[in-house]
Amino acid sequence: MTPAPLFRIQDLHVRLRHRGGERTLVREVSLSVRSGQSVGLVGESGSGKSVSIKAAMRLLPRGTRAEGRIAFDGGDVLTLGRRELARYRSREVALIHQDPRAHINPTRTVGAFLTEGVVHTGQMNRAEATERACALMADVGITDAARRLHQYPHQLSGGLLQRVMIVAALLPSPRLIFADEPTTALDVTVQSDVMAILLEQIRERQVSMLFVTHDLDLAAAVTDRLAVMYAGSIVETGPSAEISARPLHPYTAGLLQCRPSTAEVKRLTAIPGRPVAAHEAGTGCSFAPRCPFAVERCRAERPHDRSIEGRTVACHRVEEIADRLEERAS
Amino acid sequence: MTIPAHRDLVLDVRGLRKTFHSRNGGPREALRGIGFSIERGSCLAVVGESGSGKTTAARIVAGLESATSGTVVVTDGRAGGKTRHGVQMVFQDPYGSLDPRQAVGAGLHELLKIHGMRRRADRRTRVSELLESVGLDDRHAGRYPASLSGGQRQRVAIARALALNPALLILDEAVSALDVSVQAQVLNLLADIRERTRISYLFVSHDLGVVRQVSDTCIVLRNGRLIESGPTADVLDAPRQGYTRALVDAVPRPGWRPRRRPA
Asked: I need a surface site. Which of A12, B99, B107, B155 has the fewest CB within 10 A?
């Protein structure tokens, strides 16, 4: 038997109080990350991917309610008390945000930002923290680390600052890193660089990663497994390489087809309509209104997860249409 | 250099320089003498990373920014059975470029009226025609920007830009803020409009996949200098400059691995 995963979300629902009622943001999300594994959570805006990460860090805003089970190393994250929660956030997991500039205090130096957390939680004294920060900065390719520690965020470029954020995430030696679109704000060459550094570091240290992005090609390239989200639910889960080579859910197939390639020009097969949020989805499959394969049943009944070819796919017709999806994709 | 007489250029830019002066940072050269041209009916993409000067170049062509030196010549002409004048621009963020308190149809009416279309009936026909040309219909005329999706809003911005039959449409990262599934719709729309009307595009983008899809020719900018130019297929398939190759190689695709840049 395989050991229990390091991190597991089971049947997560997130609801937001809205004008006297409630709005569903995330519906029936289940996913797991094993020790040393990287998992990609892919979706368009409003699909609930960031909300899921926030729920996993217990960082949901007021008025939102998370139900279900989020387990880290066997313990239930949703019921952690103050002290355990502080410990969980400061030592077990780390979060890298999309916009580094919005998540660093502009009035304090890079060094103060990096060492504050680990010194405050008593993991290291200031001298140790500074020394380790310097070593990590060298690892992520920041030259002249000692000088950088005395600089302010505005003196660093976006790519450099995101590497500082990686150092901040790694410093307390967490076992799991949540990376929420960590390279979306960066130029492609910088993205490639920062992504390579992040992968190198987590592999060396055996750290697990949950990588959130809208870019399916990027996620497929840097993760072991993928979960594709649409309208607050996961529609397909499986090994990254297999999903990008042979998508089984019509939405995944559609996403892959509508991405323009740098190598050839052909008319893009766009997905009609627009992405919907979970609360806008009707009773049936939330993708049905945009799906070329939708039948009556899809519009009436919400599909349950089905296992096929070692993957989990939430589609009524997956067995019938699997081969046709491939034809369309080629 | 002489230009053969048969080349019908909608835009000819030469020796474009722009220096910004900040109060304490001293002068900063955003463009250091670049030149490019667009043949009528074709699409030129301006490619580059942030800070390369691509948006500055587009803004100068649109007349939103003045050049320090150099010339920009826009030639009106007939294309697709209509005489087309001047330039129009579509911006990245349709939230910021539409008036939140004006209904879509009313905005188009106002725009046409200011530009001399006096008869209400004429305007009404034209508004319908414009909305239809971007894949919307009269039902959308009464809507406000806040009630439209991002893709629909960008369609409205395109309709507004097309209203006056410009010779050149400048699109500054016009599809970058859209979700991929919607981005594909707008890219197809832009291709259809060009096929139907033979309008010319100046397309600014950092996304090489998008550039490949929409443009005939492209120029690559870096630190305000023109690094490489030519037919888009040639530039992207067989880049001559190391910088262009690095840009192409950094785009995620199946089988791609992120790579550290040599220090």
From this structure: B99
What is the total count of domains within chain A?
Answer: 1
Cβ separation B260–A197 shorter than 8 A: yes
In this predicted model, what pLDDT tens digit does every residue of B174-215 receive, in sequence order? 999 889 989 999 999 999 999 999 899 999 999 999 999 999
Domain with CATH 3.40.50.300 in chain B: 1-86+166-252
Per residue in A52-93, pLDDT tens? 999 999 999 999 999 999 999 999 999 999 999 999 999 999
* Domain CATH for A133: 3.40.50.300
- Nearest Cα to Cα of residue A162 among A105, A101, A114, A215: A101
Residues sharing a CB contact under 8 Å with residue A102, sequence separation 6 or more, in sequence order: none
A25-41 per-position pLDDT tens digit: 999 999 999 999 999 99
Tell whether B72 lies on the interface with A, counting CB pairs under 8 A.
Answer: no
Cβ of B208 and A188 within 8 Å? Answer: yes
Q: Residue B114 burial (CB < 10 Å; 0-12/13-18/19+)?
A: exposed
From the list B202, B189, B166, the residue with the least C-alpha distance to B79 is: B166
Are the Cβ atoms of A262 and B236 closer than 8 angstroms?
yes
Domain that holds residue A208: 7-329
Reported CATH class of domain B1-86+166-252: alpha beta
